[in-house]
Amino acid sequence: MFYLLTAAILIIIFLIFPKEDKRQNFLVWLPITIISYEVLCCFTTGIMTILHINANIYTVAVCNILLSFVLLGNIIKKKNIQKYYVKTEDIIFIAAYSGIVLFIWLKRYTPDLLLRFETSDPGTHLKIAMDFINNQEVDGMYTGQVTNGLFIQSLLKFNYGTSIYKSFLLKYGINFLLSGWIFYAAMIKYANKIFEKVLIYCVTILYILGYPYSDMIFGFVYLQLTITIVIYLLSIVNFFVEGNENNRKIYKALLMLGCLGVGIGYTLFAPIIFFAILICIMFCAHKEGWLLQNEKKFFSIKFIKTGLQIFLIPTLLILWFLIFAPMLNDSFVNYGLALTSEGYIYRNLYSDFLLYIIIAVYGVIISLKEKENYFLSSSFILGVCYYIIFFFRMITQKVSTYYFYKINYLLWFVILACFVIGLITIYRKEKALFKSYIIGMIILFSIYFSGFENKVQQQNINYIPFSDAGSFFHIFSVNKILDERQSEISQQLVEVCNEINSLKEEDNVDFIGDWLNFFWYEALTNQRFEGWYVHESTENKVRNFLEGNTAKYIVVLKESQEYLEYIYLFDEMKLIYENEYAFIAMSE
To answer: Is 237 within 8 Å of 10 (Cβ atoms)?
Structure first.
């Protein structure tokens, strides 16, 4: 709890730290500050790991205290604090939005906190978070590892042993809440009237019910977390461009931290975001006259210095943790080959974006014409180019469909953000066109959500042979189907893992069952198996156990194909625990 207290204190102090002369929207800066803290933790734990300092809630808490004193001293010196305002309509929206998120989260995981995910990814990421707690260091793409690990470790007094997954699910709920809240925070600046705010409120709900919700169902963890940091960077870029020399110092630091969060969150997105930020800074420097030197042949010292302040540390840390450190530890991953690996993910080539793309393109054109919103415009153009390049690499089998379709999760934010700008611009300039578009959307939404086409098809398939409206809402349909399917890790596996933890064995307890449950078994028991064991045949695993060559105990899932196929090998085992789902046996 001490760590959480220091985190809360630092967040509060940063909130009151003076950043802008004008009053700021508190509901905008609250999620920005929380995400700023999380990417700061990524920076501090990364530096600690390089310096061979234990990275845990205690050392991070010390950093929190030190930084709190620095910021507090600066506040006292300036004799000034940041002033905020809150609008009633924003409070109502955030309250309603939080209620929607809570409803979705409880519907998915229930008050009993059941493990409901479509893939094995969350089990792997819980295991990675526990690796951070166990080893007190970070590795690889570690944004999710740190943010989850610190949260889980801070609650070990309440959720320990097998129950650590409950803290993991709580953090997932917080991430889901922040994903839409930061979208609102980034976009609300574009609204001048109540009706424009309502449009942003509606699109925010539309946003989280799409790909962020899909991420939660599949349990990718790091993917939406990285995109949340990308949206955070949109807000910081806007503050930087609109700011002055005094407050740009803090924004350069936040841009640096955000770039690090993206780079070690999901590196595939880093080139798009880094270049988009660079383009924004270039246009800002050009507009203010500090892009080039007097001769106008080379970049100015100020521009180069600004670029280094923002990009140098993130780039070095990304290279260290993804290339140099793994090479030194003989654990380097060839990411070019890794991109060909397939996996389970939601796939949709373009229909999810059809309702918004034309208005989004209009928003990009208007932004470029009026020389503003360069981050979004650049992200849109670079993202589409990325998408096209990866598409051709996919059909030539140089990139898997799994990695190709992950780009959709980023484009969902970029397209909807540009859609908001385009829609608000049309509302201000072309009321008739705006009304026509909204009426068209209402008709489509009504047809889809009323189930009109399906009802008519049931009467006679020839009336409406194809359900056309559904193609515009495919992401929502799939989310609904997958949520209702409620793919679940059995609670009895949790009970078995609890029994394993009570054995207090120094060595691993062997496992026989499907690979999906195996990853959760590793995470919940905090055991780690060598690569050879994961790929070893079931028959060899059992024979080695029976001969006493591996572990003293073994867990066997009764419903698994592995058990049913080799059931004759288990007849003579000495059972020490059994339920309907599994048993634990002891070697002779």
So the answer is: no
